[in-house]
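--- STAGE predict ---
source: upstream dedup step, 1 unique chain passed
mode: sequence only
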Amino acid sequence: MKWLLPLAAVFALTASAADISGTWKGAAETPMGKVERTFVFKQDGNKVTGETTSDMMGKSDIEDGKLDGDDLSFTINVNFQGNEAKINYTGKVKGDQIDMHVEVPGQDYKIDYTVKKVSGS
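--- STAGE serialize ---
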């Protein structure tokens, strides 16, 4: 009977975890102007994959994605004007919105913005 309580706690935590599968959209103010970005997330447990598209940098695959409770992290690789860059995303899922934080390693480039779910499960 002692094993039931920890097992119930694990199920409760699993049930309350966010599910971000679907399409999300948002816009960020950048030094290059306003950039709109669409994310199509596919979630399998805590693993997150998919793709993202922006009007400025085109399409990129979502890599190294994971969702730990409501904490999201992933990277994308972009090519902007012939320059390759890895961009790190972290986020906090809050229902049908994700507060995103974006950083480019090795550069003083940080942006915070919110994306909202537009379709999906």
